[in-house]
Amino acid sequence: MAKKSLIEKEKKKKILVKRYEVIRQSLKRQIRSSLSIQGKLTISKKLQSLPRNSAPVRLRNRCSLTGRPRSNYRDFGLSRHVLREMAHTCVLPGLSKSSW
């Protein structure tokens, strides 16, 4: 189980990413459409002035049940440990896990 504080930080980052998503996309579009170098520099300064945690790159995929940050399957949103346990108990439909 991950620390509660790290899970809460991730939740705050997700909220920030959603809040600044439209602004960030519009600034990136303006940079691409701008022809002058000076214009691109001023727009990139505005982009840099946004909060760091509002960048989607800073998000970390975590297991939805345990909060484990590594070895997650995107399709299920679960870590490998939880996925294996759920597959053995036949909770996940369409997934058969072999055990030998």
Automatic annotation (TrEMBL):
Pfam families: Ribosomal_S14. It comes from the Eukaryota. Signal peptide: none annotated. Gene3D superfamilies: 1.10.287.1480. GO terms for molecular function: rRNA binding; structural constituent of ribosome. InterPro entries: Ribosomal_uS14 (IPR001209), Ribosomal_uS14_bac/plastid (IPR023036), Ribosomal_uS14_CS (IPR018271). HAMAP family: Ribosomal_uS14_1. Belongs to the universal ribosomal protein uS14 family. Part of the 30S ribosomal subunit. This is Small ribosomal subunit protein uS14c. It comes from Dryopteris crassirhizoma. The gene is rps14.
